[in-house]
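Cross-check.
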Amino acid sequence: MVQWWRGKSFQPKEKVTEARMPGAWIVTIRSVPLRYDELRRVVESTGEARVYFGEALAYLKGEAVALLRIEATGFGWLEALHGWWQQAQKRDGIAFDVRFYIRDREFVGSFQRDRVEALVQRLRERAPRVSASTAA
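Predicted model, tokenized:
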């Protein structure tokens, strides 16, 4: 029997469960669990946003969702995400939505219901920002 625990002691990775960048907007995304990895990759692809907390499968009010909490310094990632969302639906032929929230529960909008420009405007106006004192 292999004793995998012998030798080197366990060194956990640093866990980041809160936003750190001062002035960044804090946004929560919910979508279908199947798309979690792709969502995360696209959000972080522009360099304007970072997923500081994510769950590939969470249950909220009986609904299975992928959950991503994001800190963003700009909103170019939202346009990239919208382009990816349109292509994914065409490619797979399966309709799904990406919903946006602030303060984890306040619904702001979704790709199926809103235009990207309207979402960006609402998020700029309503999304909380990381203060310098909490970013330290």
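DSSP finds four helices and five strands in the chain. The first helix runs from residue 36 to 45. Passed to J.P. for a second look.
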